[in-house]
Amino acid sequence: MAIPGIPERAAGVQLHVTSLPGGRLGEPARDFVRWLAAAGQSVWQVLPLSVPDAHGSPYASPSAFAAWPGLLEDPGAPVNDAEVRAFVDEHDYWTGSWAAHGGDLADQVRFEREWGALRSFAADHGVRVMGDVPIYVASGSADAATWPELFRDDAVAGVPPDAFTDTGQLWGNPLYDWAAMAADGYRWWVERLRRSLSLYDLVRVDHFRGFAAYWAVPTDHVTAENGRWETGPGRAVFDAATAELGPLPVVAEDLGVIDAPVEELRDAFGFPGMAVLQFAFDPEGEDRSHEPESLHLDQVVYTGTHDNDTVVGWWDSLSAQRRGEAERAWRAAGIAAVDPAWAMIRLAHAAPCRLAMVQAQDVLSLGAEARMNTPGSAATWSWRLEPGVLTDDLARRLREVSEESGRAS
After folding, report:
1. Which of 203, 209, 257, 309 gets the most CB atoms within 10 Å of its CB?
2. pLDDT digits 0-9 by tens, 41-51
């Protein structure tokens, strides 16, 4: 289960574009690439580049395909008609839906220019960009309006009660009519993955378990507690995409309620799964898959994802028992812990997993005030770096950790 374009042992940092100083592309993005290269990191993971909702969430976008012009460094850059026509020719499947929804295709051309230049800059510095593909689209989106036959109206998306919430998460997104999608060879999903792989070097597919089975909540319910599991399309979507796009550089977000069918689907395509160290160190928990001793090669290990607290915020909330378990794991890995954030960074880097990812907030040892998202709440997604805080000293410190674990690029 190699990750195309990524070394056998590698490391990276997760930081969304909106969390850069200024919250957009341009010199701060290039500075961050330079910092990653200095820190020996191979991967920059971002959240979806799509238009966010009113709360700033890029996971409830009005388009699964269009990029957000709010990220542009130069939103007034000239674009001529020929450039728009060329862009439409290249992206003819979805550009009509976005234009009909009020989107400006000239902005998409501008984004293509700026993002393409940044991707090239990153590649020149040995940095690959990991993107994120949300499994669902937003209610009222251009996708639901343009292809209504592909979506259901009797139930919406969510997840059952889990580690994040006692009543589950009622996402409210339209569910796919998988039979209708199968009828045209899963064209919408093939084109969505085509678009994603034109933007990123590899992608994390969000809520991967939904392709095996998904939680369907009746439309009139106010929580997700009383939904039910329904069978997903299985491998058919990825078979269709692989037939047209070739091997898919996908990381499967296999978190939550994971069973044998999810694991079999993931492994059938050689997709690495995920492990999150903040879910470990719970001797009373049933899920032991995130414990350091359970980790294995074909995974991406995280200190925490955008849905987790920062390590310091998490540590501050831990029971004495779980703190003791974490400290035991640090000692077993030869880590002398003073700062819990850097202890967890070292633990992630020491893992056998191919790729170790950390949040930028954890490099900075920030507390809960720097959390990006709290699932099940109307989060603001507003955390942002202050200029200059990712210093040369921090780059050297992270490079040392990556070099010690054989992950430095």
Report:
1. 209
2. 999 999 999 99
> How many whole angstroms separate alpha carbon 77 and alpha carbon 259?
49
Q: Which of 112, 191, 201, 253 is catalytic?
A: 253
The DSSP secondary structure of 241-274, one letter per residue, reads HHHHH-S--EEE---SS--HHHHHHHHHTT--EE
Is 74 noted as a catalytic residue in this protein? no
Under 8 Å between Cβ of 199 and 128? no
DSSP code, position 370: G
- Kindly state the tokens that stand for 143: 């996708």
pLDDT at 379: 66
Beta strands in 160-260 (DSSP E): 169-176, 202-205, 213-218, 228-231, 250-252
CATH 3.20.20.80 fits 10-404, yes or no: yes
Among candidates 133, 77, 66, which has minimal Cα distance to 100? 66
What's the residue count for the chain?
409
Q: What is the pLDDT of residues 210-227, one digit of tens each?
A: 999 999 999 999 999 999
Angle (nearest 5°) at CA 341 between 338 and 342: 65
* Annotation says 166 is catalytic: no
Q: Does the active-site annotation cover 307? A: yes
* Residue type present at position 154: D
**Section 237-256 average pLDDT:** 96
Burial of 314 (C-beta count, 10 Å sphere; 0-12/13-18/19+): buried
Residue 281 falls in which region: left (phi positive, over 0), alpha (psi -120 to 50) or beta:
left
Count of other CB atoms within 10 angstroms of residue 388:
8
- Where do the structural domains in the chain lie, given as residue ranges? 10-404
SS3 percent helix, strand, coil of the chain, rounded to 5, is 40, 15, 45
